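Problem: given the chain below (272 residues), write out its structure.
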Amino acid sequence: MAEKTEDKADANIWQRGETTKMQAYGPGFARVYNSRWSGFARQVAPQIQEFYERTAIGLTNRTLLDVCCGTGQLAVHFLEQGYRVVGIDLSQPMLRYAEDNAREYIDTHRAAFIQADATNFSLGERFGLVVSTFDALNHLADEQALRQCFQCVFNVCDGVFIFDLNTRRGLERWNGVSIDDSDDDTLLIIRGIYDGESNKAWTRITGFSHTSDGFFERFVQTAFNTAFEMAQVRKMLLEIGWRKVHFARNGELAVPIDDPEAEGRVFIVAEK
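Solution.
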């Protein structure tokens, strides 16, 4: 019954174009995300760590806040490197996977995962490094929500904030239909829409996955990305109080780029 309710809610959002400040993903999507889409977090985690540990604060401060932590793979990398990690996410199903993936660190009080909205959170501790990856902040509804997120991060960060965003050029890749049947347990049908001019791109993921009793279980998840102007992103960060802000490519976080809009995905590095 829960899966059917999730399907209907997503279908209504798809039809009406409604959004909330932050999207929360259901159990079907969380299961597939944990098994199929965690590679990006594992790829970028060592690169982020390397950049951070070359900064002044990164030499001694080993605390991390993962905003929109998903199923926790990036958090686990930093936990394995000796960091204290807190992850926040609005989706309880995603957090359950994160807790399972990091169970040994939760049991030793080095990790905590908290249900919270990226646009409205406060925590009882501060962090040297704050991250948000896999274009998570594109899922915020508008510039006001993004600014609120930046302010919340600023309030708990003592050092460096690193996140990535899809650009308009990157969102053009969402157009079309694709079918992913790369394993025997899950079939995914992905339909994307972006006109190249508006500030919203939409994708609808219909999945069929094997259950333990041999049947298939269906889920539907609708997601949006907001196209933010990179110049405005930088302006907001500086206005809030970040001292330095630069754009970079994946794998080259220390190398500023002049034209972030020419990239499909761009990393933003903000430092106090």
